[in-house]
Amino acid sequence: MTYCVGLLLDEGMVLLSDTRTNAGLDNISTYRKMFIYEDPGERVIVMMTSGSLSVTQTTIARLDEAVHAIDAADRGSIMTCETMLQVAEMIGQTLSDVRVEIASKMSRASESASAAMIVAGQRRGGAMRMFLIYPEGNFIEATKDTPFLQIGEHKYGKPILDRVVRPETSLQDARKAALLSMDSTLRSNLSVGMPLDLVTVRAGACRIEEQRRIDANDETFQEMSLAWSQALRDAFTKIAI
Amino acid sequence: MTYCVGLLLDEGMVLLSDTRTNAGLDNISTYRKMFIYEDPGERVIVMMTSGSLSVTQTTIARLDEAVHAIDAADRGSIMTCETMLQVAEMIGQTLSDVRVEIASKMSRASESASAAMIVAGQRRGGAMRMFLIYPEGNFIEATKDTPFLQIGEHKYGKPILDRVVRPETSLQDARKAALLSMDSTLRSNLSVGMPLDLVTVRAGACRIEEQRRIDANDETFQEMSLAWSQALRDAFTKIAI
To answer: How many Å separate Cα B124 from the centre of its chain?
Structure first.
């Protein structure tokens, strides 16, 4: 499985993904699930993927091919779309096409393949937006009421987000909330694993502000994880019932 | 859906279930999912159910009928079994039979029905044991390494249990952990709802020590829920990253 989470805040956006892919428990690999397209100051797009690797890789490959095509300006790509809504529609259409193609192959073997994506970004002059794209190609958008989107193993890490994330949450606190949400998921589910990919984008900047790969032996993350465990245990001790 | 959790500790056992049942989102009802059989000092058995109500009600009804049958001593029931293992086997067999019967009716309409159960108890002179019974009738047992079992919407409430529950956890702390695990689930998932049924059993006593129904307006629970939210937010603020 996978866990990816995106937070859309007044100050900016935080996106975090794990990298574990498995085909059965005895075939575990590390694959990047976060893909960044950037024309700094003009446009920034971050995509995260969950689900069947064959579907997500082919989808990303087609979107990428369009970006780098010689006739990209004519054919159109996520880097030439006029709005983030059009970006979401293009990704949704590509995901849906790929899924249907692969599903028709899989169905001969009574297997299925599916995938979902989160796409977030901003174009200069436009609004910062974040979408969750379903396997069928349709999508929903993060809003003030629901300022975060999750794909993959989303349940373990949802309680902390429900409690602390609001649109007015600072970028730094949102980063912390995303990492703690991931930490809970890593502890409770083997199919989600380090290293992590973390990106922050400041509203209006149309560029990546921070991009980090967090390895299993990252000291800052380990300290945060330990401190959070301790803080939870302390909080637990203090609660009277 | 449902959320039920059982904790097996050196000091005793804690069992907690919600009561929400839904057939679609517009058909929500309250049904007890915890069933207690007690011969105080001699034997105590607590069952919790999740899944299709038609399967769980029929299963419980058959087990109950056997307990109250005039020839119960000859026919055997969960109250005459010599060990908790035999109790688990009898429940597993009944659940499996009912599921197969109902599934054969449902399959005509391309529908399915399934259910799982937790059963915990002790007989005088025997060990305190707790089992999770799968729809197929087979089961697994709580152990020192894994001192809790969950059925239904188990993911939201797992992180807190993973962090604080050990076999040596006190009965009071286990009670608190179960309630906080339920609180996280209630916040994040609409299909789990108040009131709650809570039971504690002390090791060796072979009787219910505490049995409580916790309503939506229960002040102690509300205070705990608020205090936990506050404690989590405080802990979140203190963590540096």
So the answer is: 22
Per-residue pLDDT of B188-232, as tens digits, reads 888 899 999 999 999 999 999 999 999 999 999 999 999 999 998
Contact A194, A19 (CB under 8 A): yes
Read off the pTM.
Answer: 0.86
Residues of B with CB under 8 A from a CB of A: 153, 155-156, 158-160, 162-164, 173, 175-177, 179-180, 184, 187-188, 220-221, 224, 227-229, 231-236, 238-241
Token couple for B216: 């939506």
- Whole domain around residue A107: which residue ranges? 3-238
- Domains held by chain A: number: 1
3-state secondary structure of B13: strand
What are the tens digits of pLDDT across the range B67-88? 999 887 788 999 999 999 999 9
**Residues paired with B149 in a beta bridge:** B6
Q: How far apart are CA B212 and CA A127, in angstroms?
A: 52
Token pair belonging to B60: 């419980």
Classify each residue of B212-231 as buried b or exposed e, where b means 16 or more C-beta atoms within 10 Å of its C-beta: bebeeebeebeebbeebeeb
CA–CA separation, A142 and B89 (whole Å): 48
CATH number at residue B160: 3.60.20.10
Contact list, A231 vs chain B (CB under 8 Å): 235-236, 238-239
